[in-house]
């Protein structure tokens, strides 16, 4: 059984979020919701998340899951905002513990922080199954961009996070802590083993001039046309290409606030005694 899918686009971060729902039971999941954040002013905004909430309310859906494909480095998660408005369980892959173990010390996070994933309502293991109404859903571990990456499978739809982009943009970078180009290649081969007609829903698109914005592609298209890994590209050639490209990339503008918040399941730091919340910026560290 296949779900109903509605996408939402956050232009500032180039991020797609999704509402996936089962028509029979009117139950829903939200994937990768975005909280707006200005690095200049330090102000958050909920405009993109409000659009998702409004859609779910208008359609009369019951939210059961808020699913993160990984701890994003380019935007802050709106998982806590969505949960406060609509309920649901916040979930991510169990590899989040490795990401927390690396970045907890970077930000000098103190107890009750612990690198055990307890900040999330559920940690998914590889090949774990769960239900969305009458739809049986699956989780595929797809690390490489980060070591907590997962793909969510709903019928003939796969939500691949940052693993793949549109065919003319290639694949995700692998130079963040825990990233590995060879591991990403292996994860992509797992996706390529799905039926060619499987629809792949992307987390980002940065279209070149002359092409419109796209949120979906297919396994068959990616296998044939992806400029980094299509056409039977070997693991060795891919690793060489990916590592050379990554060496020339700068860090995402929001990596410091995003990682700091997202390893806490989208919770902003607790206000200090002046009732102001502060996000740490480690100096000369990354």
Radius of gyration: 18 Å
Work out the number of β strands: 15
User: How many individual domains?
Assistant: 1
The name of the CATH superfamily reads Ribonuclease Z/Hydroxyacylglutathione hydrolase-like
User: What percentage of residues falls in helices of 4 or more residues?
Assistant: 10-25%
SS summary, helix count? 7
Sheet-strand content, in percent, reads 15-25%
Architecture in CATH? 4-Layer Sandwich
Which CATH first-tier class would you pick?
Alpha Beta
- Low-pLDDT runs of 5+ residues are none
**Element pattern in H and E:** EEEEEHEEHEHEEEEEHEEHHH
Strand order of the largest sheet: 1-2-3-6-8-9
Q: Mind summarizing the main beta sheet?
A: 6 strands, mixed
CATH third-tier fold name = Metallo-beta-lactamase, Chain A
3D structure, described in words:
It is a single chain. By secondary structure, the protein is an alpha/beta fold. The protein has one domain: Ribonuclease Z/Hydroxyacylglutathione hydrolase-like (Metallo-beta-lactamase, Chain A, 4-Layer Sandwich), CATH 3.60.15. 24% of the residues lie in helices and 23% in strands. The protein contains seven helices and 15 strands. It has helices at residues 47-58, 79-86, 96-106, 181-192, 219-225, 235-246, 255-262, and strands at residues 4-10, 15-22, 27-31, 34-37, 44-45, 62-67, 76-77, 89-93, 122-124, 129-132, 135-141, 150-154, 157-159, 199-201, 216-218. It has a six-stranded mixed sheet, with helices on one face. It has a six-stranded mixed sheet with strand order 10-11-12-13-14-15. Helix 1 packs parallel to helix 2 (79-86) and helix 4 (181-192) packs across helix 6 (235-246). The mean pLDDT is 96.
């Amino acid at each position: 059984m296949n779900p109903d899918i509605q996408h939402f686009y956050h232009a500032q971060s180039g991020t797609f979020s999704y509402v996936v729902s089962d028509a029979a039971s009117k139950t829903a999941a939200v994937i990768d919701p975005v909280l707006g954040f200005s690095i200049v002013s330090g102000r958050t905004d909920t405009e993109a998340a409000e659009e998702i909430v409004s859609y779910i309310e208008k359609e009369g859906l019951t939210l059961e899951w808020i699913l993160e494909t990984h701890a994003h480095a380019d935007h802050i998660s709106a998982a806590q905002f969505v949960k406060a408005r609509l309920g649901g369980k916040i979930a991510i892959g169990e590899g989040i513990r490795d990401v927390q173990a690396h970045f907890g010390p970077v930000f000098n996070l103190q107890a009750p922080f612990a690198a055990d994933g307890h900040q999330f309502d559920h940690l998914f293991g590889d090949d774990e199954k769960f239900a969305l109404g009458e739809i049986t859903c699956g989780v595929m571990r797809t690390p490489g961009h980060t070591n907590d990456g997962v793909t969510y499978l709903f019928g003939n739809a796969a939500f691949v996070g940052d693993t793949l982009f549109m065919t003319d943009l290639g694949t995700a970078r692998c130079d963040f802590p825990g990233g590995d180009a060879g591991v990403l290649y292996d994860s992509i081969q797992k996706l390529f083993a799905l039926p060619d007609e499987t629809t792949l829903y992307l987390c980002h698109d940065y279209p070149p001039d002359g092409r419109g914005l796209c949120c979906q592609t297919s396994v068959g298209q990616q296998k044939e046309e992806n400029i980094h890994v299509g056409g039977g590209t070997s693991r060795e050639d891919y690793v060489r290409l990916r590592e050379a490209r990554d060496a020339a990339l700068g860090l995402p503008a929001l990596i410091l606030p995003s990682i700091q918040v997202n390893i806490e399941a989208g919770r902003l730091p607790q206000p200090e005694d002046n009732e102001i919340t502060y996000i740490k910026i480690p100096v000369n560290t990354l």
